[in-house]
Design a protein that fits this description.
Length: about 240
């Protein structure tokens, strides 16, 4: 898949989400990220509705269970025609392989099969995990960056297409896993927008410079006075 800007649609309902996407009628259609809040509130129908409108969908559910269960979950998601979805790398290589098999094992409808195969990516360490928490709660005493790179290498060994990471880690990941291994990076802010609750932020242009393959941007677009303008600004800053 080519580089792109993914808009995090962190809305609590299908209605609010579709109202937001209505703004893009007849314009460039954003690649949309749907997270747990919306998916658990509205169910698979929200994915079908957004796909029907011609958007690509990254379904951010971060699966983590025994391999057989993750494979089954991924088969169901493949049936929805998602373009990108994810698992926790801490579930291990076997679990990631099983997830990939589930996602690519023909659960897609005939219409979806003409689209490119869905991409499975991994979460290495959540950005809410600190070095102290790794050591004290999880008894992992390695450097957090070494853990992130090792988990990314595990994801690559399992055949996954990439990882979610900070743009600041994109170089490290590409160095270890190769330039084709996708880095999908949240924590994006315009130079003149507020940081909200994001700690380490990067502009779209800086993310491009650092080698991000996909940027994930939410509130600077969804809460903007003119969301279409804000989205197009992110697109032109990131894609050039
Ligand atoms: O509104 P904002 O641009 O901060 O949204 C970023 C999106 O990316 C949210 O959906 C958030 O949950 C997600 N995300 C993140 N940091 C991670 C993983 C996911 O901000 N490490």
């Amino acid at each position: 898949m080519a580089k792109d800007v993914i808009v995090a649609c962190d809305f609590p309902s299908m209605e609010r989400t579709l109202d937001f996407l209505d703004l893009f009628e007849g314009k460039r259609k954003p690649f949309v990220k749907i997270g747990m809040e919306l998916f658990y509130a509205e169910g698979p129908d929200v994915v079908r509705k957004i796909k029907e409108r011609g958007h690509k969908v990254f379904l951010d559910l971060k699966l983590h269970d025994i391999p057989n269960t993750v494979a089954g979950g991924m088969r169901s998601l493949a049936g929805l025609g998602v373009d990108m979805t994810n698992v926790h790398a801490s579930g291990g290589i076997k679990m990631m392989k099983a997830g990939l098999e589930g996602l690519t094992s023909g659960g897609q409808s005939a219409a979806d099969q003409v689209n490119s195969a869905p991409v499975l990516i991994a979460v290495t360490q959540l950005t809410s995990t600190s070095q102290e928490m790794l050591a004290e709660e999880l008894l992992i005493d390695k450097d957090i960056n070494d853990v992130i790179v090792k988990y990314a290498l595990n994801a690559k060994a399992a055949g996954l297409g990439g990882v979610v990471c900070s743009p600041l880690e994109a170089g490290l990941i590409h160095e270890a896993c190769g330039s084709d291994f996708l880095t999908v990076t949240p924590g994006i802010r315009f130079s003149d927008s507020t940081s909200d609750d994001q700690a380490r932020i990067t502009t779209p242009a800086k993310a491009r410079e650092l080698g991000s393959d996909y940027i994930v941007i939410g509130r600077p677009v969804t809460q903007a006075e003119d969301p279409v303008e804000a989205y197009m600004r992110a697109v032109s800053d990131f894609l050039g």
